[in-house]
Amino acid sequence: LNCLSLELLSQNLPVTYTGIIKGRVLDVKTNQPIPFVALSLTDSVSTPKSLQNDLEGNFIINNLKPGSYTLKISYVGYQNKAITQIAINDTRFEIDLGDILLNADDKLLN
Questions:
Q1: On the CB side of 10, how many CA atoms lie within 13 Å of its CA?
Q2: Residue 4: its pLDDT value, please?
Q3: What are the tens digits of pLDDT across the range 36-94?
Q4: Who contacts 36 (Cβ-Cβ below 8 Å, separation ≥6)?
Q5: Looking only at Cα atoms, what is the longest distance across the chain?
Q6: Of 17, 19, 26, 51, which has fewest CB within 10 angstroms of its CB?
Q7: What is the 3-class SS of the chain, one letter each residue?
């Protein structure tokens, strides 16, 4: 009887999904990873999450609540980039942005 009661209770509990956004940052001309890029993830309600990618250009941002996010990417000598409307929901909770290509900022190189 206890197992049956527990099973009935668990069916009424809401399922909580936590999202993941991942990707890799590369130089558009050389296709080489850009390490230690500054990443900032924002949504409309939470405090922005700030982090850096790793030596191979990879990043993973975990434990994200459902919502719409903007990822801002910046690195000295490169043009800033923003990826908007990244949606995390109950059917799409692991987002792989793949290779994100950054262009050198020619103004800084001259």
A1: 6
A2: 47
A3: 999 999 998 888 999 999 999 999 999 999 999 999 999 999 999 999 999 999 889 99
A4: 52, 53, 54, 55, 75
A5: 77
A6: 51
A7: CHHHHHHHHHHCCCCCCCEEEEEEEEECCCCCECCCCEEEEECCCCCCEEEECCCCCEEEEEEECCEEEEEEEECCCECCEEEEEEEECCCCCEEEEEEEEECECHHHHC
